[in-house]
Amino acid sequence: MNHTDDSLALHTDKYQINMTQAYWQDGMQNRQAVFEVYFRKLPFHNGFAVFAGLERVIRYLHEFRFTESDIDYLREDGYSEEFLAYLRTLRFTGTLRSMKEGELVFANEPIMRIEAPLAEAQLVETAILNIVNYQTLIATKAARIKHVVGEEPCMEFGTRRAQELDAAIWGTRAAYLAGFGATSNVRAGKLFGIPVSGTHAHAMVQAYRDEYKAFAQYAETHKDCVFLVDTYDTLKSGVPTAIQVAKEFGDRIRFRGIRLDSGDLAYLSKEARRMLDAAGFTETKIYASNDLDEQTIINLKAQGAQIDVWGIGTKLITAYDQPALGAVYKLISIEDENGTMADTIKISSNPEKISTPGRKRVFRIVNKASGKSEGDYIALEHEEPQNEDHLHMFHPVHTYIAKFVSSFEARELHHTIFEDGSLVYPIPALQEIREFVQANLQVLWEEYKRTLNPAEYPVNLSKACWDNKMRLIEEVRQKVQQTMKA
Ligand SMILES: Nc1ncnc2c1ncn2[C@@H]1O[C@H](COP(=O)(O)OP(=O)(O)OP(=O)(O)O)[C@@H](O)[C@H]1O
Ligand SMILES: O=P(O)(O)OC[C@H]1O[C@H](OP(=O)(O)OP(=O)(O)O)[C@H](O)[C@@H]1O
Ligand SMILES: O=C(O)c1cccnc1
């Protein structure tokens, strides 16, 4: 490395810096700009996503600055001294409104809203999307897996397969937040207080060239023992040897379990259970791992597998079946040359992809009688849906799909995190976020939670928000027509 890696300011796409340069040269850099973060499609065909990444976004914005090494590097790239001097002064001075980490989020609703001088808001886009896309994706995958597992513990085993070090660490945190119970990554334990636990690998049995010696040595050195029983022959050698060592060591160890890591996990777990029970080890748990995900787990359960603890690595930490969430960062409002805010829109031939202009608030409309959510309601900044007796909720594209809701609680989902550059939000403990996820899931009807073909959760626009969108679409249409005539 030629330069010290002492900041994340350059963790951005070059075009952000180039746009910033254009704004700065034009004197536009301090115009207030409002951007929103949202995705258009839920990952894994799931019925909801679990938002994760806020804590890291907070750290990033808090520390945002171009260091001398960043400036030196940009100088080599030919940027002018005047522009570099300007970059050196930049800090995040804006306002961030965001959903809390652990909030359930759906397609086409703003997760975050960044309101800042244009240059700042533009420069932070890439890192914010990088963080939110990955962490939300993994938290959602973890929630899917946890949903099919149910009450049994899930352990995160993915570090060796993760897309490098950061992904392992923050992915583990996302998995824990969404309901996993422990990780094998010791550094994640140190950094975030996640419970760390583990068994042992085939290498240990191979190193001793003998299962008995390996298990016995493990038992000599550890009170809690989980023996990996599939190195040679699970039922003929692994399980009997584990039982033998456990009997020999008696009270000197706690024989917590055995781990199965290959072969037919349903058959082997049932046989192993029978053998452990027959030997009196009815409390000893059966751990299973080997490329597990929600599909294999559903299948194993359907076969009556006797698995008590699930170790899940590759398919979780890499979001194997959908390796990217497509959250975007879109400009929704910008200060014009007269100092007034003007809403902006991005048109698409696909109506679902047309952005929704203007500063907005998102509410979860919870039916007071059932305690369940009727859907999310996106309103313009000044609106107070809570004050309405009957809320008209209609589909933003197919507007005839509509209902009136009464006796509801409109829970606002955005919170102020930074106010004019100051952090005003107390970052919650990870444990609290974990509990928040479970409480949020309680509010969702089961129809939205099933992993296969879930029902589509309503995300509606208020009439005022919808009208504003239609007004801008018409404005753009007229502008395009005038351009064509000219
Ligand atoms: N009873 C089962 N029903 C459905 N899937 C299973 C069952 N048992 C195991 N699996 C899954 O099938 C896949 C089998 O993996 P693989 O082909 O690598 O076989 P293996 O026995 O694990 O071999 P290896 O020794 O190379 O690990 C894994 O994803 C595993 O989780
Ligand atoms: O299967 P995952 O969900 O990724 O869980 C982690 C895997 O990592 C370990 O073995 P590794 O894959 O390194 O080697 P092995 O399976 O060939 O023993 C462990 O035994 C699991 O199988
Ligand atoms: O502790 C384990 O059993 C473990 C840890 C990482 C990967 N696979 C298994």
UniProtKB/TrEMBL annotation:
Its EC number is 6.3.4.21. Residues 359-468 form the Nicotinate phosphoribosyltransferase C-terminal domain. Transmembrane segments: none annotated. InterPro entries: Aldolase_TIM, N/Namide_PRibTrfase, NAPRTase_C, NAPRTase_N, Nic_PRibTrfase-Fam, Nic_PRibTrfase_pncB, Nicotinate_pribotase-like_C. The keyword Magnesium does not apply. It catalyses: 5-phospho-alpha-D-ribose 1-diphosphate + nicotinate + ATP + H2O = nicotinate beta-D-ribonucleotide + ADP + phosphate + diphosphate. Residues 10-133 form the Nicotinate phosphoribosyltransferase N-terminal domain. One of its GO terms (cellular component) is cytosol. Residues 154-334 form the Nicotinate/nicotinamide phosphoribosyltransferase domain. It holds the Pfam family NAPRTase. One of its GO terms (biological process) is NAD+ biosynthetic process via the salvage pathway. GO terms for molecular function: nicotinamide phosphoribosyltransferase activity; nicotinate phosphoribosyltransferase activity. Keywords: Glycosyltransferase, Ligase, Phosphoprotein, Pyridine nucleotide biosynthesis, Transferase. It comes from the Bacteria. Catalyzes the first step in the biosynthesis of NAD from nicotinic acid, the ATP-dependent synthesis of beta-nicotinate D-ribonucleotide from nicotinate and 5-phospho-D-ribose 1-phosphate. NCBIfam families: NAPRTase_put, PRK09243.1-1, PRK09243.1-2, PRK09243.1-4, PRK12484.1. This is Nicotinate phosphoribosyltransferase. It comes from Paenibacillus nanensis. The lineage of its organism: Bacteria, Bacillati, Bacillota, Bacilli, Bacillales.
